[in-house]
Structures are given as structure tokens and as C-alpha cells.
Amino acid sequence: MKYEFILFDADDTLFDFQKTAKKNFEQTCKKLGVPFKDGYYEIYRDINQGYWDLFSLGKVEKSVLKKMRFVDFGKVIGYEIDADEFMPEYESGLAKISILYPETIPLLQEVKKLGLKIYLITNGLANVQRGRLSLSGIEDFFDGIFISDEMGTSKPSKTYYDMVTRQIDGYDKNKALIVGDSLVSDMPLGIENGVDTCFFNPNGVQTELPITYQIKTLPELLDILK
Asked: What's the CATH number where 80 sits?
């Protein structure tokens, strides 16, 4: 078998993060009296993703990301949000909602049957990711879980890659595959370190990055691994 080490991203790869986040964002807004209308989550989603991309590239600090995404959202809708109040409430709620894609557990079961080692690599916040993982029922599938917030470094930095791979017994980059949805963090992590990549791309996003594989559904990964 070509691959022995499968490194999965979490959000929007195994977890349906958008459904999770939208539900929690609406609940938080209503609890704190912040206006919420159709389309508001999508405004926040794009702002949030922009900050996470900057964080992945080392251009903003985590503290800035956590606060300013809410401040900027408030500016767009014309409502002054108390980010110091909204931020902990939102993060606390997010840690209590865990929605996987329907294909996630069957996929992980099949990958395990193949005898492969499975790892989780995520740039998420530690309290949020640990909470959602605990609720998800998939923790035991992983031979290692690497959360940027706990490591002090993030994808796609070389430091993150080195810290992860040093903790994987017998790791061989020629037998590893990185699976994720991000063209900013996941795919560059593999490309810049000479590791094969699998871009989970259900929406058919166009890219010129030298990605090894592209899949539109999670079960397609099994055709690559078998």
C-alpha cells in the first residue's frame, strides 16, 4: 500500500464546520441581543475565514483573530458588538456543538480497516476543538491529535510540520498523505514539505497549486488509499 500515514484536517474536511458555526453564531447573537438576519452568518463566515487565513500565514496574532472578527462583523451590520463579551460566549457554545459529515465515521472505519495510521491536524482553538472532538465520537480513530493552539504554531509553517512529524513513530513523508480543504493551510503544508496532498473540494474550486489528488466526496479517498 502506497500510504501508511494519513493526516486529516478537521473543519470542513471531517466536521461540517459551517453548519456547526452557523447554528452557534445565531444562538450567540440571540442570547446577547445582537441583531441576526438572513445572510448575517455568511458575512461573519467570510470575515472569520479571512482572519484564519491571515493567521495561517503568520500575519495576525491569535488574540487579534479571536476579537477582531466580531468587531469587523459589527461594523459591517452597523452594530457595535462588545467582542470581549461575544467572544467567550461564542467559543463556549461552539465547543458544545459537534456536527460531522455523514460520511466521516464510515470513512474513518474503512481507513482503519486498511491498517493505516490516522492523525488529526488542525489550526483550531484548543478548547473548541477538544470539546467538539469529545462529543463527536471519533477521537479513538486517531493515533495522534495536533492542535495548533496547543502547539504554539500553525499550519502551514515548517515548525508545525516538524513538531507533528517528530511525534509520529516511524514517519516517512514518502508514505504520508495530507487530506484537507484549505488552499492556504492544508495543501501548502504538504507541498512545501514534499508530502502528497489530497484536496477535499466538493465545490469545485479552481487552483493552480500542484496538488496530488482532488476529491469531491470523502468516500473517493478510499480509491486512492486502496
From this structure: 1.10.150.240
